Amino acid sequence: MNYDTARKRMIDSQIIGGGITDQRVIEALGKVPRHLFVEEAMAARAYGDSSLPIGEKQTISQPYMVALMSQLLLLKGKEKVLELGTGSGYQTAVLAMLSAHVYTIERIRPLALRARKTLDQLGLLNVNLRIGDGSIGWNDEAPFDAILVTAGAPEIPTTLLEQLDVGGRLVIPIGEHHSQMLVRITKEGDGTFLRENIGECRFVKLIGKQGWNEEDRGTLNTN
Ligand code: SAM
Question: What is the pLDDT of residues 98-115, one digit of tens each?
Fold first, then answer.
């Protein structure tokens, strides 16, 4: 399997073909070796147009969705970014190439440790990874220029809005268990928030204090 050729095809058909126009995003996805973020048995499918299992009942997101969410954050290179739901670390690697520093949180320890190892192997030094509940954000490092949530939440966690800088963007899937709306929130100069509904999507659950209960089938976690 020639991974470089497969990645080039992915860029042409799924990313540019899918309508992504931010050149920096296209370049980043063209460089990050996605096959290193999945198990070896899955590597041949790494550049296909789909999400894939990464163990612990979690997934690495579809390449187009990674590109779309990255583009929506409007990164120019100097930003401080918070990512919730590190998963395999693939989206983290893309964000690390597009910004100055990425703070990422994963609640499942084995996934976090594997992601850390892969990011280190690639020499991405501008990433801080924490294991825990990301639904409450990373207060010590706030405010952030951009926040990306890569798991579906029942509603927008208020803590994340507080941790967003003025002019900052929060991209998050909001909705029910099996279907959400991808939403971009921008914090305006007067402290108000602009909400844009981008389109339907389907993510695993954001589990935590400002997310779902682990066993939830639809009730909001109010703890
Ligand atoms: N962006 C990832 C990638 O490229 O591999 C995929 C993320 S996966 C769709 C969502 C991740 O969010 C899972 O790994 C899950 O364990 C994690 N997650 C869910 N709730 C979380 C929380 N409260 N804090 C941190 N991580 C959480």
Answer: 999 999 999 999 999 999
Number of compact structural domains in the chain: 1
Q: What is the CATH number of the domain that holds 177?
A: 3.40.50.150
User: Facing residues of 207 across strands?
Assistant: 212
Q: What is the dihedral of CA 80, 175, 87, 27, to 10 degrees?
A: -60
Q: How many percent of the chain have pLDDT more than 70?
A: 96
Separation between Cα atoms, residue 150 and residue 138, nearest integer Å: 15
pLDDT, one tens digit per residue, over 151-196 is: 999 999 999 999 999 999 999 999 998 899 999 999 999 989 999 9
Question: In the chain, which residues have pLDDT < 70?
Answer: 216-223
CA nearest 186: which of 174, 170, 197? 170
Q: Show the CA angle centred on residue 17, arms to residues 23 and 25, nearest 5°.
A: 25
Is the shortest distance between the CB of 111 and ligand 1 below 6 Å? yes
d(CA 196, ligand 1 centre) in Å: 23
134 Cβ below 6 A of ligand 1: yes
By residue range, what is the domain housing residue 142? 64-201
CA pair distance 159, 137, nearest whole angstrom: 7
